[in-house]
Amino acid sequence: MASKKKSPSKKISTGTQLPLQDEVQAALTSLERKSTSRDRENLARFGITAGKAFGVSMANLLQLAKRLGRNHPLAAALWDTGWYEARLLAALVDEPARVTPAQMDRWCRDFDNWGLCDTVCFHLFDRTPHAWRKVTQWSTRRDEFAKRAAFALLACLALHDKHTGDAPFLEGLLLVERAATDERNFVKKSVSWALRAVGERSPALNAAAVTVAQRLADSPDPTARWMGKGALKEFSRPAVKRRLAARQRSAEG
Fold it and tell me: Is 8 inside a domain boundary?
């Protein structure tokens, strides 16, 4: 009698399919083995505060994520452990198409440092079908890291979304200008990041971003002024000008 062909399974280090909780524990064990005192010290050096952290480099996290493969249930379970690196790993292995708006809101409420916020936005949230809606919704949040998430997500969309036209990004610049007076460190840095990323996406968006940056640079508010002057300096860099010129030629050709 012919044996049934087994479907491919998710593997950790044993090469066998594991129950979900065993898979989570195996991942945590792998993270603990990859932890180093240097990587733990780097968390404080880079201003990342996390209550539960192993201290694992992003390079090692990426290797583990590649081994695990995409796995939505595993991502949810890793997130629920509360470990900083497990949550980073969750962002790397989750399946963007299966992420719901409710999940995005739950995870956003758990953001307690810039490293977690930015990694989730950069590797997962900007690939979901709900990303643009969350940029708008989170941009009005009072919580520092939720508001940071709105603009980190806008910046990541500017970097990674190859299909969306200019119109949503122009709307994003309106959100940037409204948030430009928020002096909180983790907010203002993400708003500045979004302004620069949008302004380097295309010649048309660069023109719009330069106009916004000039208004901010002329503002009496010190945070807005810092943001505007920094963006104008960035946009004037020769490398940025060359990239924009190349994109203009590509669009015309």
Answer: no
